[in-house]
Every structure is written in structure tokens, then in C-alpha cells.
Amino acid sequence: MKKSILMFAVFAMSLVAMSWTVTGESTCDKCGGEGSVTCPTCEGKARYQCAKCGGSGTVTFQGSTYECGICEGSGYNDCRTCDGKGKVLCTRCFGRGTIHTND
Question: Is the pTM of this model over 0.85?
Fold first, then answer.
């Protein structure tokens, strides 16, 4: 009984090893080897129009105009998804630019 369990375990481990054998690498087809892709939230623009001031940089309160405190008068805010970079880490290669292949 023990011998058959051991044989099964060895067989199962060899199957796992064969299925995960890495024989090479190729350029990631999702990011083209860059390791990052265009941010889906800002579409690569790295920022978005301020919702508080509508992009004007100013707000009106009780008849007076003030600099918008959210965007500090710029009219835009950095994208929170990409931290204002316009790119995010590729989820296929995890930033390496290459993927493993089992050719």
C-alpha cells in the first residue's frame, strides 16, 4: 500500500514538473516588452479634469471667486490609478516585459 502511494506521488510530481517546465522566454504580447500598459482610468493622460471646479481652477462661494482647493488652481488632478504616470504595471508579465514559454 505504501509503495503504491509513493509511486503515485512521484508520478503526480513529475506531471506537475512537466507542466511547469520553462523552456524559454518571449516578449510579452500585452505590453510589447515595456512592462507597463496605458492606464485604463485616464487613458494615458496621467490626469483628469477636477470635478470640483470643472477644470477652471476656481470655485465661486457666496459671490466670491476662490482658487480651487482640490486641484490647487490647476483645473486637473493626477490620476490615482497610475499616480499621474499614464502607465500601469502589465498584469501579464508583472513588469518584466517577457513571459515564460513551454515550447
Answer: no
